[in-house]
Amino acid sequence: MEGSSATKRAHGLTREALRDGFVHELVARSGIDLPVLSDEERRASLKATLAAQPVPGDVWLFGYGSLIWNPAFHYVERRPVLIRGWHRQFCLSTPIGRGTPENPGLVLGLDCGGSCRGVAFRVARSEAEAELELVWRREMVMGSYIPRWVKLHGPDLPEGTYGIAFTINHAAPNYVRPASEADTARVVATACGALGSCQDYLFDTIHGLKGFGIHDRHLNRIADLVREHRS
């Protein structure tokens, strides 16, 4: 697929980069006055989330975007699942990772309503705190997401299986209300930042979903519009 992870692009968000504070460095180098969670706030968020686990045991994490094709954390298994009450949406503006202050990009969040098919990763409970610390360093930088436990639905999952999902924080300064698919495609087609282009992010996500037999019609329509914009 054109512009997909089938080209095996190297991704900047590696385990080592996350461990060494690469995302926070990106924010610091941007020169933008952005609200950033302190190490203490980030650790407290992770600790509180794990303490609220509905059922003791291994920890499931729900991926709906870049976590699918570049998890950068260790897991025991992964499988396609469905969650209800949330849908995948380009609703988070990014002036550094996939855009610039002059031309901010858009990345995905889970917004209220509908349902979403994605990939659930099972992390061994003994390793959960260390592995999820990397995920928190990646996702919980500016408080743009609210981690919460959501019910996972899948043919081989026991009833009552829950996983952590990063849902969008409507109070975050970089939350944007969903725009038309055409407007979203214009941003995705033109924005590029330190982590690469928005269109690569889009195509990688589509390709990652297809690897699990998941076809997102909304993303596919945006992809078609991005191709038209480039032609």
TrEMBL record:
UniProt keyword terms in alphabetical order: Lyase, Transferase
Top-level taxon: Bacteria
Enzyme class at the top of the EC tree: lyase
Transferase is among the record's keywords: yes
Stored SUPFAM superfamilies: Gamma-glutamyl cyclotransferase-like
GO molecular function terms noted in the UniProt entry: glutathione specific gamma-glutamylcyclotransferase activity; transferase activity
InterPro entries tied to this protein: ChaC (IPR006840), GGCT-like (IPR013024), GGCT-like_sf (IPR036568)
Identification of the protein by name: glutathione-specific gamma-glutamylcyclotransferase
